[in-house]
Amino acid sequence: MNRRQFLATSAVAGLGLLSAPFVARAATRTLRICTTSAENSTMGLALPRFAAAVSELTGGSLGVEVFYSSALGKAPELYQAVLDGTLDMYFLSVDTVPALPKPILALATPFLFQDRTFAHAAYDGALGKASSEILAGVGIEVLGWGENGTRHMTAKKPIRTPADLVGLKLRVPEAPVSMAAFSALGAVPTVVPFVELVPKLKDGLVEAQENPIGNVVSAKLEGLQTHISLTAHTYSSAALGFSAEIAAELTDVERDALHKAGKIAVQVSRDENVNFDSKGLAAMVANGWTVVDDVDHASFAAKIDDVFAAVSEVVGADTLAGIKGLIS
């Protein structure tokens, strides 16, 4: 019995499917992957393509079972399960797991990237390589750096300047960087897992939120929010992470196939975000949303130093400087 099997059979009750041991199969080994995103989100749409590619590239020796919308646990639980080897893979945005190494947490800092194209180049180059090496050091083999999308703000009013955020109860993901950044912008950030966003908006625990357009569309927030302000404040990347312990049980051919399939998933997530940014926005207008496209980006730019200072308190000034250096 290896460590993964031991953990799977001895995990405490309550983890449910996360702690279930794998069942021996004659010909095909099925790997499980879970995301917090919905099936019709940009990340969710990438995973069936990933699964199909894995099956094709391995000649059926590996299969992939996909779980959506935190079906196997919230983001921090999924991350820990992959570390423990009781879950094979996750597809998670870097701003949803507080236990990530600090350089990875820093990737969720607002205003790091000029635009999506700039971000893609960074993740396909030095930033992606260095970030993958950091996660490898804790037991996560990165199969690709996908895209959760460019984040914008929604509320029941326009948000054109940081002044519009002052005192606003803003939902943020489970990321200390997001808490620090939006506090520096004047908001009252409140951590709410994405799967709980709709009920928390209904209850009034939060008044506003920020997410890529694809996530806003998939969550169906119309009626709970009325305005989407195109602040484009954060590029949200997503790691397709594989348990290094489980990876060690596979053949070189199978691992190579997973990495090739990961590249396909990355491209699908990026392409779908581009689609949502145009077609999704049009659908939102048709559903009664008001698009605020006259955001005063200069006023947000004037707060960058405050945001970076706040994030540095969380991850360390040297860490944030190192990430900025890799990007530039």
Structural summary, described in words:
The structure is a single chain. By secondary structure, this protein is an alpha/beta fold. The protein has one domain: Bacterial extracellular solute-binding protein, family 7 (D-Maltodextrin-Binding Protein, domain 2). 45% of the residues lie in helices and 20% in strands. Strands 1, 2, 3, 4, 5, 6, 7, 8 and 9 form a nine-stranded mixed sheet that branches. Helix 7 links the parallel strand 5 (169-172) and strand 6 (188-191). The protein starts with a helix and ends with a helix.
Q: Roughly how many Å apart are the termini?
A: 46 Å
Look at the structure and give the CATH class: Alpha Beta
Rg from alpha-carbon coordinates: 20 Å
Strand content: 15-25%
Shape: globular
Amount of helix: 40-55%
Characteristics:
328 residues, alpha/beta, D-Maltodextrin-Binding Protein, domain 2, nine-stranded mixed sheet
What's the layout of helices and strands?
Blueprint lengths: L2 H8 L18 E7 L6 H16 L4 E6 L7 H10 L4 E5 L8 H4 L10 H8 L2 H11 L3 E16 L13 E4 L3 H9 L3 E4 L5 H7 L4 E5 H7 L7 E17 H4 L4 H35 L3 E3 L4 H5 L2 H12 L1 H11 L1
Parallel strand pairs: 1-2, 1-3, 5-6, 5-7, 8-9
Antiparallel strand pairs: 3-8, 4-7, 4-8
Concise account of the structure shown:
With 328 residues, this protein is α/β, with parallel strands linked by helices. It is built from 14 helices and nine strands.
